[in-house]
Amino acid sequence: MSRPDLNLLITLDVLLAEGNVARAAQRLRLSPSAMSRALARLRETTGDPLLVRAGRGLVPTPRALELRERVSQLVQDTEAVLRPAETPDLKQLVRTFVLRTSDGFVENFGPGLIARVAEEAPGVRLHFVQKLDNKDSVLLRDGTVDLETGVARSTSGPEVRVQALFSDRFIGVVRTGHALSQGEITPARYAAGRHIYVSRLGDDKGPMDEALSSLGLEREIVTIVNGFSTALALARASDLIASVPERHTGNLRSGMHSFPLPVPTPAFTVSLLWHPRMHADPAHRWLRGLVQEICAATR
Predict the structure, then answer these.
(1) Where do the H-state alpha helices sit in 83-206?
(2) Are residues 146 and 286 in the same domain?
């Protein structure tokens, strides 16, 4: 059995709405003869005359009356499917977004982001999950995670969309009253202290240690933790020194003494990552814009 020409639905919708071949032809920008041929095809396809002569005009058959509302709805639904997605009514939007974030992101940027979401889309809920590794983009690809923040790496996957949020750098942090809270901090003074090292992968040295080594110095790493918030909590309650990202830990460092590291370490870019399957989604696009605005405004 041959499949019907679905383009005929639009022709049928206009014919049934107008009840006149000439006016239907004008609406569809067809010649009257072309519209007459289309009506003939519709009659053959449906097995019904649809419109029949009554005096000087045409009147619909019972079958045409039965089809009129159904065909009109079908055409409207089809046009809606093919039309670009409209901006959602944020006040009516009910949705949960999962954000996989690097350590310190929620503590520093979460309050502002949550406040903006509550103001613009009160039915939206943010579910934050901590980013424990940088292995791949599986969670973005399968839809488990909507957005991710962190340093984009080659393992993120070639298809993942990346938008830079801000540049960050490592700084030193100690409790108020610590010896390093006063005076010039030289590489030697810094290396002589007792340090906290942050590592999620189990290693115990990083760029800071390489920079000190080039000067013939080595720092004493007393403890290794897997998060910057833990490192800062320890430093706040002891004489230990933490080295953490400046932008990521702004709120967490409140009441503590921060200082530039005495040896050069590379800056890095924190980015927003998402899968192309969500790129055109209006609500997703709105949330991405909010994250970028909050990160730009929070210093």
Answers:
(1) 105-120, 138-141, 187-192
(2) yes
Q: What is the CATH number of the domain that holds 281?
A: 3.40.190.10
The two beta strands, 95-101 and 147-150, are parallel
Domain span holding position 177: 170-266
Q: What residues form DSSP beta bridges with 98?
A: 127
Count of all residues that appear for the chain in the document:
299
Whether the CB-CB separation of 6 and 71 falls below 8 Å is answered with no
Verify that 245 and 104 share a domain, yes or no. no
Strands (E), the chain: 51-54, 57-60, 95-101, 124-130, 147-150, 161-168, 170-174, 194-198, 220-225, 241-245, 257-260, 268-274
The radius of gyration computed from the CA coordinates of the chain, to the nearest angstrom, equals 32
CB 184 within 8 A of CB 257: no
Residue 101 bridge partners (DSSP): 130
33 burial (CB, 10 Å; 0-12 / 13-18 / 19+) is: exposed
Task: Clarify whether residues 144 and 207 are in a common domain.
Answer: no
Assess if residue 89 is contained within a domain.
Answer: no
pLDDT in tens, 93-113: 999 999 999 878 898 999 999
Convert the pLDDT of each residue in 5-41 to its tens digit: 777 888 888 888 888 888 888 888 889 898 889 889 8
CA angle at 73 for the pair 67 and 79, rounded to the nearest 5°: 130
Which amino acid appears at position 126 of this protein? L
Specify if 45 maps to a domain: yes
pTM of the model: 0.70
Q: Say yes or no: 253 and 285 in one domain.
A: no
Closest among 156, 124, 152 to 139, alpha carbons compared: 156
